[in-house]
UniProtKB/TrEMBL annotation:
It comes from Circinella minor. One of its GO terms (molecular function) is phosphoprotein phosphatase activity. It comes from the Eukaryota. InterPro entries: Calcineurin-like_PHP (IPR004843), MABP (IPR023341), Metallo-depent_PP-like (IPR029052). PANTHER family: PHOSPHATASE DCR2-RELATED, PHOSPHATASE DCR2-RELATED-RELATED. Residues 87-279 form the MABP domain. GO terms for cellular component: cytoplasm. This is MABP domain-containing protein.
């Protein structure tokens, strides 16, 4: 009994320290260029389902799924989110049935706020669902950073998200819908682990959180097997996890998960998970308890920062190595190590700053393919060869910033987009180089949404990628400032904007999406906010990165616009007049250069009314190219010099000597 009291006291003291540090973090986020967004308010938008569109709550982001989709209910219901940096964050949400006794409990406490409206608006009393949220840090210490909704009875979701275990359409027909949320910061410890075998992926245990991804993925004969965990405050923490094959000795003092992870397969190995619980945890145990579990598919797999990979393929035979099915590995996170600090981006003492743009990498979580390569004189190993080229570029150019300009992940043959994300950024992270990314039209065509991928990238070392304002269309609209030096006291001399150019205008995928007016309004607001500086410019010069080219990348017929570089394919842009992006860039006045991707075998820079519109040129071997026609894959380098008044840019070819081509100087 004394040990439990000691454990509870230690947890309480740690929680008090955390609450103080969280409040300090929220204050510091207001002063930081790299902004962490927290959800601070929720509202429902309810309208007749025959309306063309439900009115938006101004200043809120809408989750674009009708919570009554597919039902016969007369109303459409949408959830809108807000991220006001001056307000306290929401730390937990609950969905309660009208008939539940819990509802009276929630209504009678000041800690929970009831959302006006019914998630099943128009249904009967016994199908009513009410959403509650809290900002009480004693109930939950972790601010919510993202809320998503997915359809289906068992949608795959990133391990950064927690499932709210209520089907929002239960009892009213229509497709199953579930809500998920992610939270920032150190989590409470995992206190128990179990597993369950099922005939389908609709496999859950009441009161337990599921570790997403079937550990028997790709196996024709055998059951689906999922791992589950609990976090119960006051219970002793899990401090270690091991995987034991059938002929290995079992660890002393560990709890066995009874379900065989190779359940009913035809392989010889019996694989079980064992975990250790400390009944009398020391301070060191409490610093290093198991916080999270995740399954990762693919080979080779990258171990993300702060995680540990158990080196046993859970789809293995007797020796723990791959046999058949998807290569599957279990990872756990022990404690909560802080990400490495990133100094402010700044010019060196010669007034220059170098950017490496990597376009259209098309990574997978597997080995990848080699498309459109010469039939001879080129040894190619898919993604590994692309990685080798990235490593050569990094070591030769030594950039101050790397920009991944979209289609970083392939649109097919990817079973784990999170694992593919770890792979494409790993060479940059290993060299401790800051990096930023935008999304292309293929990145979210697999198991994870843009929102989930952004959450993953924001938790990776040296990442400057940000979600951007919730009320602005898209995911990943943000800016980075280049200062006169790499200190907080440096003066803002150059700006890099990042914009989400979307994917397609509709599900037919016949027309490419475009940058929306509210994104341009945000950009102009930010541009206007930048004041004069002592170096003589009216506002800092700027450049912008996005994936899909805007219409003005087309050359005017017979026009005077000079172009340097190759145009080997038609410009796959939104249709003319779809958006006034170029006009907004001109009106802002600071954007002098843009960099995009998308069209892999275009690599030119086009001077259009004083704004240089440039392609990066595709680098990834898993995407289409023209190497087989004597046009090697390539990457673009940007060197901002003269303290932001000049840009030199060139390209490096994927050949034995990384040949430099098309060097040009752009005076801003």
């Amino acid at each position: 009994m004394r040990s439990k009291t000691k454990s509870t006291t230690i947890f309480s003291r740690r929680r008090d320290d955390y609450l103080l540090s969280l409040r300090l973090l929220l204050l510091l986020s207001l002063l930081s260029t790299t902004v962490t967004c927290y959800v601070t308010d929720l509202k429902l938008a309810i309208c007749d389902n025959k309306q063309f569109a439900c009115p938006h709550n101004p200043g809120y982001q809408r989750i674009p799924i009708d919570l009554n989709v597919g039902t016969s209910l007369p109303k459409s219901v949408y959830l809108d989110l807000k991220d006001d940096p001056t307000s306290d964050p929401i730390t937990d949400i609950k969905i309660v049935k009208q008939s539940d006794e819990q509802q009276a409990l929630f209504d009678n406490t000041k800690s929970w706020t009831r959302l006006d409206g019914n998630l099943n608006e128009g249904g009967t009393d016994d199908t009513n669902l009410t959403l509650y949220y809290t900002k009480d840090l004693e109930i939950s210490k972790n601010p919510i950073t993202s809320i998503i909704v997915k359809t289906g009875s068992h949608p795959v979701v990133s391990p950064d998200y927690v499932r709210i275990p209520i089907n929002l359409n239960q009892g009213v027909g229509g497709e199953s819908i579930y809500m998920f949320h992610s939270q920032a910061g150190s989590k409470d410890p995992i206190t128990a682990i179990t597993a369950k075998g099922c005939l389908t992926d609709d496999c859950y245990i009441d009161g337990w959180n599921r570790v997403e991804k079937d550990v028997n993925e790709g196996v024709i004969i055998g059951t689906r097997v999922y791992l589950f965990y609990q976090r119960i405050r006051g219970q002793p923490p899990v401090t270690d996890v091991v995987v034991i094959l059938n002929d290995q000795s079992t660890p002393e003092g560990y709890h066995k998960v009874d379900v065989d992870l190779n359940q009913l397969t035809i392989r010889g190995a019996s694989i079980h998970l064992w975990y250790q619980v400390k009944e009398n945890p020391t301070n060191e145990d409490l610093e290093n308890f198991i916080q999270e579990l995740a399954i990762e598919y693919g080979h080779p797999s990258i171990t993300p920062f702060g995680w540990t990979r158990i080196p046993v393929d859970l789809n293995s035979d007797k020796d723990g190595k791959s046999d058949f099915g998807e290569p599957t590995f279990l990872f756990y996170r022990r404690g909560y190590p802080e990400l490495p600090s990133i100094p402010p981006l700044g010019f060196n003492d010669k007034g220059s700053f170098k950017i490496l743009q990597l376009a259209d990498l098309h990574f997978t979580n597997k080995e990848g393919k080699c498309r459109d390569i010469p039939t001879s004189n080129m040894e190619c190993h898919g993604d590994n060869t692309t990685i080798e080229q990235i490593v050569r570029l990094l070591d030769l150019e030594k950039p101050d910033l790397v920009v991944f300009s979209g289609d970083n992940i392939n649109g097919e043959d990817v079973s784990d987009a999170r694992a593919a994300t770890f792979k494409f950024a790993d060479p940059v992270i290993q060299r401790k180089i800051p990096w930023a990314a935008v999304f292309g039209n293929h990145d979210d065509e697999n198991d994870l949404s843009r929102e989930e991928l952004l959450t993953t990238m924001s938790q990776m070392p040296y990442s400057l990628t940000q979600r951007g304002p919730l009320h602005v269309s898209g995911v990943g609209n943000y800016l980075l400032k280049i200062l006169s030096n790499s200190t907080q006291e440096g003066e803002h001399l150059f700006t890099i904007y990042f914009l989400d150019s979307g994917a397609y205008t509709n599900d037919t995928k016949k027309e490419y999406d475009f940058i929306k007016q509210d994104q341009l309004d945000w950009l102009q607001t930010m541009s206007t906010s930048f004041s004069n500086n002592k170096y003589g410019t009216q506002k800092p010069n700027a450049m912008a990165f996005f994936h899909i080219p805007i219409w003005e990348y087309h050359e005017e017929q017979g026009g005077p616009n000079p172009r340097l570089g190759d145009k080997r394919e038609s410009i796959s842009s939104p249709k003319e007049g779809a958006a006034k992006v170029f006009e907004s860039f001109k009106a802002a006045g600071d954007i002098k250069v843009t960099g995009c991707g998308h069209d892999h075998v275009n690599d030119y820079c086009l001077d259009r009314d004083g704004i240089f519109l440039c392609y990066g040129g595709g680098l990834g071997l898993n995407g289409y190219g023209a190497s087989h026609l004597g046009w090697p894959r390539r990457a673009r380098i940007w060197e901002v010099s003269d303290w932001g008044e000049t840009i030199q840019t060139w390209k490096r070819l994927h050949d034995d000597s990384l040949t430099m081509i098309d060097f040009q100087t752009i005076y801003l």
